[in-house]
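Encode chain A's predicted structure.
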Amino acid sequence: MTENKEYMNVPQYQDEDELEIDLMEYARKLWAARKLLLKVAGIAAIVGVVIAFSIPKQYTAQATLSPESGKGGGSSLSGMAAMLGIGGANMGGDANALNISMTSDIVASTPFVLELFDTQVKTLDGETDTTLVAYLETESAPWWGTLMSLPGKAIGGVMSLFSDKEEEEEKPLNPFQLTPKQMGKVNAIKKIIMADVDKKTGMTKISITLQDPLVAATMAETVVEKLQKYITEYKTSKAQEDCKYWEQLYEERKKEYYEAQEKYAKYSDNNQGVVLQSVRIEQERLQNEQSLAFQLFNQVSTQLQMSRAKLQEEKPAFAILEPASVPLHPSGTSRKIILVGVVFLALAAAAAWILFGQDLWKNLKEGLSESNETKEA
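Encoded structure for chain A:
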């Protein structure tokens, strides 16, 4: 049994020796090709510098807001309704309230983006003062992006030669039917807006990434304001409709009450001192009509006040935890990291070629030559 154990342990030592020999062999190959690796590193450094300085700097402005998670307006309004003698009305909040998780979908929706088209922005240096859409056309792009877009521009130029002048003119903005150019602008704006929602806490972080820090901060503030307005209009739409309905009914009942009051007053003045029974009956009828009109007017007035209170209760409150501010430093990958990454990838590729690629290529060439000789023979 002892001899078998010793025999089984021999391959383990041999594998460790072979592994050490292989590592030494790899190190020897890399050392022998150190001049090539230095050349590759130098060329990669130049390429890395070109890539790093070709990518425009971008700045990200952020704003964090937290909408109210809930409110007890339903119970308070119900209590007020009971005190005023109004029963049977559901004074609670809307069960179909806007879900906070929909915030990211809202800011990425086409109607929301279209409202940002004419937002006035100004660059930090003060040289550009225009709309957001016009500013996006002034942003620079990497040189390889320009090269890749040349074929498309060439095809578009050729197509424009055969198109009518009327088609070349910019069409008015129609959300129902956008032109390809307008849809391209919409997609460009969607790319710069990012909304991150924490479903547990309801906190929403709005991020805007642009090449100018002041423009990015301005757009972050604008998006937050429009988002608040959008959610407020959504959650209060039903209450606003109810309020308009009661206002209209209030004016009608007010007019009816004033007319009934005026009829009763005129009839009483014209028949003052008259003791006829028919006059007394007509006077009582007009008085009853006046009282009924007043009761209806009073009830509608109370409902109007309740609807206005409900409208105020339905308005959501937003806490701006972190307002938008002009970023001081660029965002994204720094130029140093890009340079180091390019050099590292180039050295890794060169090392893989030296250690494995050359042998594989040599064996492949020998195999092809032997197969050719066999065919000739």
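The first helix runs from residue 2 to 32.
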